[in-house]
Specification:
alpha+beta, Alpha-Beta Plaits, 2,3-Dihydroxybiphenyl 1,2-Dioxygenase, domain 1, 4-stranded antiparallel beta sheet, 4-stranded mixed beta sheet, globular
Length: about 325
């Protein structure tokens, strides 16, 4: 019998490192189930911020951005498996990594095979391999291992970064640091408007890229404008390991005198804030004395150290 295992969890419950590990464990589970003849399909879902809800009432369609309902845990992915009974389906569900931090809901699948293969399904349940009603294990595993599955973004706001002539190098630098990132498109200057922009035909004009699904544009506009701390990008981290990793990579070659209170400048002059989520929690505690102690300690730091913040808050 087919069972759909729906994985619900808080989208912010895992750090980037933990999420990558979870994908790896899910891919291995899919491979194991495939070997046992129980695997049908699996995939992670994009965040609920990308959801679109559709309703039809009195013949009219109502389309809204966002999920159907706000919940503490969100549907993050699924497994479709073959199991002899509910007990076996439960045993499979306990092996899903998401069950450790969320909930796996098990739903039996009502069989309604395609009319063309209905009789074949009755005679041979494995005929889905030839009639195309499910994905092959290898296809799904390739999708699991592809970071592109997490990169759809419907944001209407795209930051544009003005460089002199380093736009492509900067985009390559940033996409090498952030997970689930890629360069989307490179456009080049032509002969038109050369008297204004002064760039030779064929030179890079803009680079569209994504950092963890967030779209950016890098523009080679000449030396007129420079970056400063009036604009910065915040990176929220769940662990000290994430803080250390982003700090080391982004600060390499940057202005060390600009490093203060979790802020840094990269080698292109762009400012970043590497912020542990626990810092926000400690600063917002109702105990004013604790908040003040944490603030004082944080102001003396360059890179934020989580253990020190916790120690001060506990004193």
């Amino acid at each position: 019998m087919k069972y759909l295992l729906l994985i619900y969890m808080d989208e912010n419950a895992m750090s980037d490192t933990e999420r990558e590990h979870c994908y790896g464990e899910s891919a291995q589970l899919a491979q194991d189930l495939h070997t046992q003849g129980q695997f049908l399909a699996t995939a992670p879902l994009h965040p609920v911020a990308t959801a679109t809800s559709v309703q039809v009432r009195d013949g009219k369609s109502l389309v809204t951005d966002g999920p159907f309902a706000e919940t503490r845990e969100q549907l993050g992915g699924f497994f479709l498996v073959n199991a002899q009974d509910l007990d076996e389906a439960i045993a499979i569900a306990t092996r899903i990594p998401g069950a450790k931090v969320g909930t796996v809901e098990i739903r039996p699948v009502n069989r309604h095979p395609h009319p063309r293969c209905k009789s074949r399904h009755r005679r041979n349940p494995s005929c889905h391999r030839s009639c195309g009603t499910t994905s092959t294990a290898q296809t799904v595993l390739n999708r699991l291992n592809s970071r592109r599955t997490l990169m759809q973004n419907n944001s209407k706001i795209t930051p544009c970064l003005w460089f002199d002539d380093q736009a492509e190098a900067a985009a390559q630098f940033y996409t090498s640091i952030f997970r689930n990132s890629k360069i989307v498109h490179v456009s080049r200057y032509g002969d038109a408007g050369q008297e204004i922009h002064g760039k030779p035909a064929g030179a890079v004009m803009t680079v569209s890229f994504e950092l963890d699904g967030q779209p950016f544009t890098a523009l080679n506009g000449g030396p007129t404008f420079k970056f400063n701390e009036a604009i910065s990008f915040q990176i929220f981290c769940d662990t000290q390991a994430d803080v250390d990793d982003y700090w080391q990579k982004l600060s390499a070659g940057g202005d060390e005198t600009a490093q203060q209170c979790g802020w840094l400048k990269d080698k292109y002059g762009v400012s970043w804030q590497i912020i542990p989520r626990i810092l926000i929690e400690l600063l917002n505690r109702p105990d004013a004395a604790t908040s003040q102690k944490v603030t004082t300690t944080m102001l003396q730091m360059k890179k934020i150290e989580i253990d020190e913040l916790k120690r001060v808050a506990a004193d």
